[in-house]
Structures are given as C-alpha cells and as structure tokens.
Specification:
- The chain has 23 helices and nine strands.
- The chain is mainly alpha-helical and 485 residues long.
- It folds into two domains: 309 residues, no CATH class; 112 residues, no CATH class.
- It has a five-stranded mixed β-sheet with strand order 6-5-7-9-8, covered by helices on one side.
- A hairpin with a 4-residue loop joins strand 2 and strand 3.
Length: 485
Amino acid sequence: MKSRLLLPALLPVFLVLATLNAGGYRYGASDQAFYQPAVVEKLHPELYPRDSSLIAAQAKLTLYDEVVAGLVRTTGQSVPLTFAVLYVLSLVLVATGAWLVARQLFLTTWGAVAFLAAMTLRHAIARSGTNTLEGYFHPRQVAFGLGLIAVGMFLRGRLVPVAVLVLIAGLFHPTAALWFAVWLAAAAMILDARARRWIALAAIPTTIGALWAFTAGPLAGRLGVMDDEWLALLGTKEYLFPLDWPPYAWTLNLGYLVVVWVFYQLRQRAGLVAAPERALILGSASLAACFAVALITQAMHITLSFQLQPARLFLIFDFLATLYIVWALAEMPARRAPVVVAVILVMASLARGGAVLASGRPFFRMDLPADDWTRVMAWARTTDVGSAWLADPLHATVHGTSVRVAGERDVFVEAIKDAALGIYDRDIAQRTDQRFRAIKDFHLLTKEQVTSLAREYDLEYFVTPYPFDLPVAFESGPLRVYRLR
C-alpha cells in the first residue's frame, strides 16, 4: 500500500485503540464539568444565573466556548453529538500529527506504525493533572493534535502552515497552543534567517497586544501576587505547585529531557539528523527555560505563573521522548526490527484496551448513562429554568457527571471542578471553599441546616439519597428531590 494511503487505513485502528486505552468515551465526564456548561451557557444564557460568574472565571480567557457553541448553532446538532464528533476529530488530529512527524524522522514505514501504536498507550504526565489521552472531548486534545501537525509541517520546512495551525489551536486551548508557539518560534529562529526577521516584526504587535491584555484586557491583574490565603485555597490542586513535587515527579519529568537529548545525540552520530530536527530539539530548550522561569515566578507568588499551569508543557517532552524511544527500539542501528516492535506495541495496546471492554465499561457512550442520577437530572431540565440545587459536593465524582452538565442547572457547589476554577479568580476560590465547608459532611446534614442554606443562598431543590421531612418533588430509586420552597 502506498504511504499516503496508509494513514487513512490505520486511523480506524488508532481511534479504537486510543479510545479503549482511555477507558472508553464518556460524555459529561471529568473536566467536562466546566467545558460543557460553558458551551451550553453560550447557547442558553438563562440557564446559569447564579453560576455564570464561576463559569466565566475560565471561559472569559478562551474562545473555546464561542467556537463550539457556534458549531452547534451552525450544524443544528446537539451538544452531545458535537462533543462526540470533536472527540473523534481530536484523535484524528493527534494521529495525523504523530504520523507526519514519524514519517519525517523514521527510516521505515513500520517504524512510524510502531510510533502510532505507542501513541495509543494513554498515561499520565506526573503531577501535571493531565494525560496523553482523555476518554472524553477535551479542547486541549484538539490543540495538541493541531500542534503536532504543525511540528510535522515544520519538519517539511512549511512555516506558514505552522503559524496558522498554532493560531487555530489557540481558539480551543490557549495555554496548550502557547507552549507550541514558544517551541516552534524558537525552532524557526534557529532554522531560518527569514523566520527570525518575521518573528522580530511580529514581536511588535505581540508586545502591544500583551501590554493591553495585562493592563486593560482579560489578563489584567495577573502579574500581581497571589496571596497566601488564595494559595492555601488551591492546596488540593497539587499539579499547580511544581516547587512541591516529590522526587519521583522530578525524576520522571526531567527524565524526558535526558531521554530526548541522549537519543538525539545517537541519531546525530548516525547521521540521521537534518536541520529541521536539530532546530526542533534545540528549540525545545525554550520550553525548559519557560518552566525554569515559572518556578522562579511561582516562588515569588506571581499569579500568572500558577494560572498557566506550566507543568503541562511536559506533555510535549513526553511526546518527544516517546518518539525517540520507539525509534531506538525499532530503527536504531543494529536493532532494525520495526515490524516486530510495531506488532508488540499494537498487541500491548489491544490487551490493555481489551481490559476496558472486559470490565463492562461501554466503548463509546455518546449520552449520559441510563441510571437514577440521569433520570433525576432529566427531570431537573424540565423544571424551573434558572433554579439552584443542593447536592453532595462530590456528586460529580459519585455519579459520574455534575448537576450543571446533566441537569443544566446551578448547583450550590461541585467541589472538584469549582476548586480548579478558583485558580483564575480569588473570589471563586473563596466561594468554593466556603460552600464546601458548609456541606462537607453532607450525610450528616439536618433538615434545619438544609432549610437554613436554602434561605441564605436561595436554593430551590435538594437531591439526596437520605430521608428528610421535606416535600418530595421527584424520585428515582434511592434518590429523592426535595422542594425547598
């Protein structure tokens, strides 16, 4: 089969293995506790009158919600279907980018196939709060895929598409796109004198834009100091604080740099390194420099250095390390066995992913699961638009999806994601902490405490598996919805 036809043939296999290794596709899971309501609010602004400021804490920093809401309006498709399509698209982008890079750097087609198989093996980046693959639509995956395609274009010397792809990536996930922009701009300056002139010219409007953003725009105040109380409120989000990493996290993350440099040197000695690859590897030092600067500014408690979540740039170093390790296994001189390596990696991915199906988890769930929680939330969507609900603060973890996602209603607090949104706004961090403390012992709440909270925070409904002497509005299985006024 011709090389240009091989990727389309491999894509279905990649999609299946990547989805299985991510635990199957689930709509409304994990970080979608923010990303789904952000889109739904753009489509129906009346749905979150109380939680709009919380959603806006992050949403105002990105165009993701506007872009996806625009897709929903334009296509006329539902949010769940749109998210499913975007999930598949994100994997196609990641596979395409990985293939383009491997075909430039590997000598054999089977080596590239082996690398594509390795990319299906989902794993976490230590203490970064991120994974190489997610089992739900995450805009970071779209940005990462576009960034990898940009790397493939860079290796082909096509710098204009590189810039365009990184700009599009920024529409979906600004910080993921930022790391690619820093890396590829540095690499372009190393590779091409003309690129240095264009980047120098672009620095003028970029500087003006940055000055506006940090003084009067969406980033205003973010060069200030994050006080001790705010930092304490974010203490559960360990991925924000690389200065507190344990030894294993430092070893794993800095180990990527060692692996990349060692195998780069081996490729160079073998005469396999062309100018674009050299520029990419030397340019990646800019990311290491960004991380070092972030450590210094975090020690100074500069707000932006936490909000950029710099530990996540190690996702790029993980990609490079995986690329070089697969090359070493499949194509390093005296080890030329790319077919064997490809087969082993495919079988490993299949075995690991097969365990997901064996566990009974669905392979691809485009909508919410048919359970008591979903039935309660379906009822919530039919009643009192703009109503506020009281639920277990860990309800998204317990039931797999949040009130804001499944019920499209305001909720008193959703401890996990609300705490993460506190990164971007001190008031939101305080609000989340205060509300979580108020119902931390949810199973011990009394009728008097519940009614007191309802009066203080203007709550209309209370969902719980515990019996209360309150009027029941709806029930499904052990879950009851009590009317609070």
